[in-house]
Amino acid sequence: MTPTTPIAPARRQAARAALALDDEALLKVCDVEFFIASGPGGQHRNTTASGVRLSHPPTELSVTATERRSQSQNKDAAVRRLRAGLQALTFVPKVRKATRPSAGSKRRRLEEKKRTSEKKAGRGGRVGD
Asked: What are the residues facing 55 on neighbouring strands?
């Protein structure tokens, strides 16, 4: 995932710091919320708070996991997603420099276009019999 909007340096630094933490320390920094996840899974899923939402306030990143019936499995999945999101925040795109084609490349391109044009012009068959 490559973000299109620029990321504030403080947010990027917070993401790097969070990636250096182990899972338990990362969970202590995050706001952890459990909720009843809807969807298939039967009575067990509909009556237990198995959905997990992790919010990382320094980076304003939030992820949820509701696909399992087990809260601990959902917590593990949410931590993996949070780490993936933090990794995406640390990505710094390369600065692109505007370039122009060289004179030689312009000349070669025009010569190739001229050869192609002559080739196509020579394809004419019998016209208007």
From this structure: 31, 62
